[in-house]
């Protein structure tokens, strides 16, 4: 009987490699992913250590002459109150990332739980979730977010909630689709036979397998969430001056474009663009990282 | 054979992969004459499909022809331009793929798909394409072709879809047809119908055919010549019946041996060196008391009388005794999977009793049965070893899952030990335990699935075509493993399959199902030797019969 073992392993299989090696492979396979990971790391460093790295206090006025163009002392110039634009752009990273990360986290958790139930159990859970999601999608999303913030009050938390709500449908729909195609897969049946309760089958077996496509959604959504938060601030809802935030900075600087003070708008705008760009690029890389099949 | 139609000379193909360049095809030469049927036989990974892709020049981007030549009627296919190839594909050489449903465009009417090919290759104008397409559908024996012209692929059965694919492939009367596993996944009776049809049409149009298959029996029954491939090399090439009667190479002999036929027993399938070491099986077993009694089982999908409702299982009764193997045989849609899901308590019953170990478990809701004390005693081995393992879990995690859920009295140390012990029982090397499913071969995945199923020492194991997705040599080993485990652990089996030759190897009794009803039930040997119903006879007749070889010829050569 033991002898039966020898015949099967005729295919050579590479040994299981570490996560680090896998990361290196993912990056080398697609250099763009490498760039995205580097940019992402930069944003994380800026968000965590930003306030300690910058040359000036972002709120301090008259750090130099007002409306000075970029120079050696003020790399991105100064604004109409003489605040250092570079410091403000860097420090704003934390607030913008915080808003988008928490908004996306909330919508990911709530949306995928709703979607998982709808996709797995079907019936009335599916109908209720479906109609709820349809209702949210029926509004122009940005207008809905505006309405929520205007009604609930101009606070950072409310921006987070509003952004989370408008992103919810994407996760709910995706989770529902991904779960329902796996609902009767062989390994799911096997899990039921192994004595897993329905909830454990759903969250222990099916849900982890939906993560790779969800990762792409998350990273794309991060970009949208940042844009959304900045957009709300731009129109005067949400983050209030003088807090450094990319959207407000663009809004404040917009008045000065005509008079030629372009650096007030360009730099926060570039930061915003770069952040969205990074999150959009990083999606495929993240998916490859969480997919064990890619880790040959 | 004067000038061959297709001449492959010293062809090599490389694939660029993450771990370097892999030679998929290594210096193979073969030729197909006019009107000839050539069978390419080999197990998965032997390069048989890659060879045909190279002929059609549809290798994916990682693959390239590293050397050698492919000549087709004076054209050098290996260096032909894409534009010229487009005229050759479909017009001169066409191909039938394994999965007919995937090969058809799901949102286009089947008749139009046939017409498209005709128009593409200027065999018809827009005006008469419909008419010609209907002729073609008639040629592949689709009943009522005018009406079926308007059908979508989802409205047709698998066998019908394959006929449409054949119609598309043959629409332009190509001179060479490549059929890549054309009947895998079809029932035996459908397989016979489809193969007979291909042979009839190719003969009628005087075409050459390459049949690519893993099934030596099928290839031998339909081909003039056979080429056996292994790991990118041609091992042996000969006339079909010569190759069957007097295989020269050890690998061919091993393949022949592993293919179950009429009167082999389960040990005969193993290669000689394994057979010597295998434990001997107890000759005659006396089955014990019934452990499973199914009485008047019914399953109704949808409300009775409503549109789309379907009575999948009608009044089914049977018994399985302790230590007994019952085979459940039937074509797809006969209700055998529904029956197994109900017995396994994955599906609620509509009516009837399922008495297991003295308790009627039919009233327990399927979704609640996970917590039932009998859950561990009733387990299953699934059809597709890949699909039945969680892709994110290692082999050890998968095997440990039932222990973690149901073996409450074991501590984590004991569970770990049990996983190692189970791996030993099913012959899975310990160092493979922390691999993910995609890092394991088909046979290894099957072992993981079996180890998981026997982890809780079940009394009854349902085997749902456990070897359908495996190569014959792996199937031979897995079937033997199952037979050993049955005796060592004292389990009973309900073996579900459409392959009577496989069922015969493991089962004491066989039950034949059709349209949700048992049409015949008897001792295995009695049922196969003296079938009483026409349906059983037709199932038996559909099994491809290679030119008479049996064990006699093969034994003589050993």
From TrEMBL, chain A:
SUPFAM superfamilies: MetI-like. It is a multi-pass membrane protein. Residues 93-283 form the ABC transmembrane type-1 domain. Its main location: membrane. The chain crosses the membrane at residues 31-54, 97-120, 132-153, 222-242, 262-282. One of its GO terms (cellular component) is plasma membrane. Keywords: Cell membrane, Membrane, Transmembrane, Transmembrane helix, Transport. InterPro entries: BP-dependent_transpt_permease (IPR050366), MetI-like (IPR000515), MetI-like_sf (IPR035906), OppC_N (IPR025966). It is found in: Cell membrane. GO terms for biological process: transmembrane transport. Belongs to the binding-protein-dependent transport system permease family. PANTHER family: D,D-DIPEPTIDE TRANSPORT SYSTEM PERMEASE PROTEIN DDPC-RELATED, OLIGOPEPTIDE TRANSPORT SYSTEM PERMEASE PROTEIN APPC. This is ABC transporter permease. It comes from Marinobacter salinexigens. The lineage of its organism: Bacteria, Pseudomonadati, Pseudomonadota, Gammaproteobacteria, Pseudomonadales.
From TrEMBL, chain B:
Pfam families: ABC_tran, oligo_HPY. Its EC number is 7.4.2.9. GO terms for cellular component: plasma membrane. One of its GO terms (biological process) is peptide transport. Part of the ABC transporter DppABCDF involved in the uptake of various di/tripeptides. Is also involved in the uptake of phaseolotoxin, a toxic tripeptide inhibiting the enzyme ornithine carbamoyltransferase. Responsible for energy coupling to the transport system. The complex is composed of two ATP-binding proteins (DppD and DppF), two transmembrane proteins (DppB and DppC) and a solute-binding protein (DppA1-A5). Five orthologous SBPs (DppA1-A5) are present in P.aeruginosa, which increases the substrate specificity of the DppBCDF transporter. It catalyses: a dipeptide(out) + ATP + H2O = a dipeptide(in) + ADP + phosphate + H(+). Coiled coil: none annotated. Keywords: ATP-binding, Cell membrane, Membrane, Nucleotide-binding, Transport. Belongs to the ABC transporter superfamily. This is ABC-type dipeptide transporter. SMART domains: AAA. The keyword Transport applies. It is found in: Cell inner membrane. It is an enzyme of class 7 (translocase). Residues 3-256, 292-540 form the ABC transporter domain. Gene3D superfamilies: P-loop containing nucleotide triphosphate hydrolases. It is a peripheral membrane protein. GO terms for molecular function: ATP binding; ATP hydrolysis activity. PANTHER family: DIPEPTIDE TRANSPORT ATP-BINDING PROTEIN DPPD, OLIGOPEPTIDE TRANSPORT ATP-BINDING PROTEIN APPD. SUPFAM superfamilies: P-loop containing nucleoside triphosphate hydrolases.
């Amino acid at each position: 009987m033991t002898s039966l073992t020898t015949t099967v392993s005729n295919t050579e299989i590479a040994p299981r490699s570490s996560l680090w090696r896998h990361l290196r492979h993912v990056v080398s396979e697609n250099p763009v992913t490498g760039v995205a990971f580097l940019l992402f790391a930069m944003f994380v460093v800026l968000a965590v250590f930003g306030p300690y790295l910058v040359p000036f206090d972002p709120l301090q006025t008259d750090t130099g002459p007002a409306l000075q163009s970029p120079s050696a002392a003020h790399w991105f110039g100064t604004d109409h109150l003489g605040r250092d634009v570079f410091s403000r752009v860097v420090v704003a990273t934390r607030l913008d990332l915080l808003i988008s990360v928490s908004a996306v986290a909330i919508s990911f958790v709530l949306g995928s739980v709703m979607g998982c139930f709808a996709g797995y159990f079907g019936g009335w859970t599916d109908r209720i979730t479906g109609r709820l999601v349809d209702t949210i999608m029926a509004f122009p999303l940005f207008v809905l977010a505006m309405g929520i913030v205007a009604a609930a009050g101009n606070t950072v938390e409310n921006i987070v909630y509003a952004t989370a709500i408008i992103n919810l449908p994407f996760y709910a729909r995706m989770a529902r689709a991904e779960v329902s195609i796996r609902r009767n897969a062989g390994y799911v049946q096997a899990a039921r036979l192994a004595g897993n309760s329905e909830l454990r089958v759903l969250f222990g077996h099916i849900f982890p397998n939906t993560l790779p496509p969800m990762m792409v959604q998350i990273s794309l959504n991060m970009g949208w969430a940042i844009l959304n938060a900045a957009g709300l601030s731009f129109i005067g809802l949400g983050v209030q001056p003088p807090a450094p935030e990319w959207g407000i900075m663009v809004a404040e600087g917009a008045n000065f474009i005509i008079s030629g003070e372009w650096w007030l708008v360009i730099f926060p705008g570039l930061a915003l663009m770069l952040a969205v760009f990074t999150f959009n690029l990083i999606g495929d890389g993240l998916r490859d990282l969480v997919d064990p099949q890619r880790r040959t | 054979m004067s000038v061959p139609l297709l001449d492959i000379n010293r062809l090599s193909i490389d694939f660029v992969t993450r771990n370097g360049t892999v030679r998929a095809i290594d210096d193979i030469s073969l030729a197909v004459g006019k009107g000839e049927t050539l069978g390419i036989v080999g197990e998965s990974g032997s390069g048989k499909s890659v060879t045909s892709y190279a002929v059609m020049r549809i290798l994916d981007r990682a693959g390239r022809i590293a050397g050698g030549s492919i000549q087709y009627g004076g054209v050098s296919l290996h260096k032909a331009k894409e534009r010229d190839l487009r005229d050759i594909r479909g017009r001169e050489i066409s191909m039938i793929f394994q999965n007919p449903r995937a090969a058809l465009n799901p949102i286009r009417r089947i008749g139009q798909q046939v017409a498209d090919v005709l128009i593409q290759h200027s065999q018809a104008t827009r005006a008469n394409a419909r008419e010609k397409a209907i002729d073609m559908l008639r040629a592949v024996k689709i009943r009522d072709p005018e009406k079926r012209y308007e059908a979508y692929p989802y409205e047709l059965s698998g066998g019908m879809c394959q006929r449409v694919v054949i119609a598309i492939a043959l629409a332009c009367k190509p001179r060479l047809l490549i059929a890549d596993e054309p009947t895998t996944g079809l029932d035996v009776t459908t397989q016979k119908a489809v193969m007979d049809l291909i042979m009839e049409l190719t003969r009628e149009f005087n075409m050459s055919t390459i049949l690519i298959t893993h099934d030596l029996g099928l290839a031998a029954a339909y081909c003039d010549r056979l080429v056996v491939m292994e790991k990118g090399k041609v091992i042996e090439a000969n006339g079909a019946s010569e190759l069957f009667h007097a295989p020269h190479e050890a690998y061919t002999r091993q393949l022949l041996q592993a293919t179950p036929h009429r009167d082999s027993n389960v040990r005969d399938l193993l290669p000689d060196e394994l057979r010597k070491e295998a434990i001997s099986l107890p000759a005659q077993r006396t089955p014990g008391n019934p452990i499973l009694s199914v009485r008047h089982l019914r399953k109704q999908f949808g409300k009775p009388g409503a549109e789309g409702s379907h009575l999948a299982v009608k009044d089914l009764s049977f018994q399985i005794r302790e230590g007994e193997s019952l085979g459940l045989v039937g074509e797809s849609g006969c209700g055998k999977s529904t029956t197994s899901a109900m017995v396994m308590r994955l599906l609620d019953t509509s009516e009837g009793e399922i008495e297991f170990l003295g308790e009627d478990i039919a009233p327990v809701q399927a979704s609640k049965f996970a917590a039932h004390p009998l859950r561990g005693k009733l387990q299953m081995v699934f059809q597709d070893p890949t699909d039945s393992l969680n892709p994110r879990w290692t082999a050890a995690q998968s095997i440990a899952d039932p222990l973690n859920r149901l073996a409450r009295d074991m501590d984590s140390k004991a569970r770990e030990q049990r996983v190692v012990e189970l791996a030993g029982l099913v012959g899975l090397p310990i160092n493979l335990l922390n691999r993910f499913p995609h890092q394991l071969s088909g046979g290894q995945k099957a072992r993981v699935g079996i180890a998981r199923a026997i982890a809780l020492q079940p009394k009854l194991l349902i085997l749902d075509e456990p070897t359908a997705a495996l190569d014959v040599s792996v199937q031979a080993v897995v079937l033997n493993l199952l037979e050993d485990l049955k005796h060592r652990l004292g389990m009973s089996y309900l073996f579900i399959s459409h392959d009577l030759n496989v069922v015969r190897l493991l089962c004491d009794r066989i039950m034949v199902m059709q349209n949700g009803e048992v049409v015949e039930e008897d001792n295995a040997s009695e049922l196969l030797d003296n079938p009483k119903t026409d349906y059983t006879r037709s199932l038996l007749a559909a099994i491809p019969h290679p030119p008479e070889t049996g064990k006699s010829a093969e034994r003589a050569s050993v």
